[in-house]
Amino acid sequence: MKGNKKVIAALNALLADELAARDQYFIHSRMLSEWGLSRAAERIAHEMEDETAHADALIRRILFLEGVPAMTPAKLTIGKDLPDIFSKDLAVEMVVVKNLREAIALCETEQDYVSREILEKMLDDTEEDHAHWLEQQLGLIKLVGLQNYLQSQMSC
């Protein structure tokens, strides 16, 4: 099915975001694991899997619309410690939320309701799971202190 060029371009822009988020979560999960923060590493690895699923959905939709998926991720921002990792991951999620909202509006305007529905599911996941969890963790670090939070992320 020949898709709308504007929608395909928007989906490709989102794909770059999702690939970057996936890659950033991947390196962050490995860093956290190496530092012995296995609970945080497991959760960030879960987020990487979610981002991979988002990228897969976008690739499938772009192909269905007879577009060519642009497989170049957006720029990564790698954290230097756990709070920095969470802050950088949250920043990526906030960019994704903004871009998802814009793409959803475009899909509505261009009457591509199937793409809109796919993106709405991603928006729910991004806002209610990824960004919310990261905001919670940053709040917990402020509440209990970094050392206590770090200790809670270890498992022996």
UniProtKB/TrEMBL annotation:
Sequence positions that bind Fe cation 2: 51, 93, 127, 130
Superkingdom classification of source: Bacteria
InterPro entries, per the entry: Bacterioferritin (IPR002024), Ferritin-like (IPR012347), Ferritin-like_diiron (IPR009040), Ferritin-like_SF (IPR009078), Ferritin_DPS_dom (IPR008331)
PROSITE patterns: BACTERIOFERRITIN, FERRITIN_LIKE
GO CC terms of this entry: cytosol
Family annotation (Pfam families): Ferritin
Similarity section: Belongs to the bacterioferritin family.
Protein name as annotated: Bacterioferritin
GO molecular function: ferric iron binding; ferroxidase activity; heme binding
Residues annotated as binding Fe cation 1: 18, 51, 54, 127
Catalytic activity entry: Fe(2+)(in) = Fe(2+)(out)
Organism: Pseudothauera lacus
Binding site for Fe cation 3: 46, 50
Domain Ferritin-like diiron: 1-145
SUPFAM superfamilies: Ferritin-like
Keyword entries, A-Z: Heme, Ion transport, Iron, Iron storage, Iron transport, Metal-binding, Oxidoreductase, Transport
Function: Iron-storage protein.
GO term, biological process aspect, one: intracellular iron ion homeostasis
